[in-house]
Amino acid sequence: xxxxxxxxxxDRWGKLYPGLPFVREQTIPPWEAWASERKALGLAxxxxxxxxxxxxxxxxxxVEVQGGTWTKGGHSTGTGIQRDAIKALTAAAGGxxxxxxxxxxxxxxxxxxxxxxxxxxxxxxxVADAKPQ
Length: 133
Hints:
four-stranded mixed sheet; alpha+beta; 4 strands
């Protein structure tokens, strides 16, 4: 079940960018490979790949909605920060970009940040009208 913030992002994105549909809650090849490697190194008891919130596979872009940024949530603990850093680096090493968005960036600042994400996706897809935001 998506969080309130994920539902807000999905709703806003669908209205603003219907021509850039996303895939929900999936893993990417670099994360699958890391899950196997981490298990082989004894760093994890269970082989489980990371899952991205919103993905554009053709552009190799993942958006992670960072809930609980002003509370002691999963993304603001030492373990959570470490996990998110590994997630981003592993994705980047495989040619993917991970974009983290806070609640403010999706909500009241969405008019600033969502066009930048759309521009990134379009440019990575080679869309001719892609302009930096």
